[in-house]
Amino acid sequence: MLKLVHFVTVIMFVSMASAYANDRLWLQTHAERVRQQAIKHNIPGYILVYLEKGQPATIYRYGKTERNGEAIDKNTVFRLASVSKTFTAMLMAKMVESKRLDWQTSLSTLAPDYGFSQAGLDKMTLTHLVSQSSGFMPNAYDNLIEANYSVKRVLNMLADLEPVCSPGQCYTYQNALFGVIEDYFSAQQSSFNVELERQVIKPLGMPNASAGKAALLSSQKWAKPHIAITRSKWRKGSVNTNYYRFSPAAGVNASIKDMEVWLRAMLGEYPQQVSPSLVSTLTTPKVKTKRELNRREWREHLQDAYYGLGWRVYDFDGYKLNYHGGWVKGYRADVAFAPDQEVGYAMLMNAESNLINGFSAAFWEAYFEHYKKNNSVVSLLNQVSDE
Prior knowledge:
Oligomer: single chain
Strand content: 15-25%
CATH superfamily: DD-peptidase/beta-lactamase superfamily
Largest sheet: 8 strands, antiparallel
Distance between the termini: 16 Å
């Protein structure tokens, strides 16, 4: 009888160990589903990366930089759109860390020429700007950005705008207000693009990352933008200058190799350049974002949602997930990492397709399901081993 029990135990152990070893099937399945959807909807191209802290990254790529162009690879540069805000937040955090700024620095100090010291705006700080809790109407004057208004003109108009709530009291997503950071660096005889390169991109050794339109166009290899004609039909577009005028909001460019480096930094692999305390500061919830709970494809998984400093902070089926997405004409981008599980994921696309929303939600659903199963297997293996 003891021999039979031992035999059954060994079989169970081998079976569970085999299942544990084959732990990338879920990822391969996800990648294939994404590829099939891309084919179905004629997506020009995309590339995605999955990584676990300290382990080699897995990259899946599809399509070309443009029709008859080069195949997309790990060094192909894309626009990050609003994912740029995660970089801006890190740059601001580094400046606070070096005592050049303070999170409580007022906007009237950062940009003294625009009337932000008037009643109702005088309490607006760098924290409120980066945490999307300024109190201005959401997406205030994005239409002026898209009409190619200058930073100075837009900021002057913002300073005359009546807030909808007191700073820090409600979530009010902005792009135009990030012009304050652009203006601040200009007054320091520098620029956001230069400072980001000097303080973030270069120290991390990002091979292809940059900020600004000129930097994108001079990249050795970059993906051309594609605009939707229908859900499954695309035309090649031109690179607009508009949001590049507000680079802290949407002006960073990067390849998937750069995003791998970025995720590794968020997961603590480069503590000399990005300390765990900086990551913690950026991903601590600041303001609740109720509308995020109704995001299509995500809503069945989101239990809670906040905005930190440049990062969204989700409760995804009981797990913490730090996330940001981006969209400018012709491009989409998503980046996220689960700090407790020490894994990260990013996807870049040279088409403004909403499919990316479903792809990212499906990825994290698959990952956390895999994670739960793996934990169960490990627990059972430990029990068998103890017995």
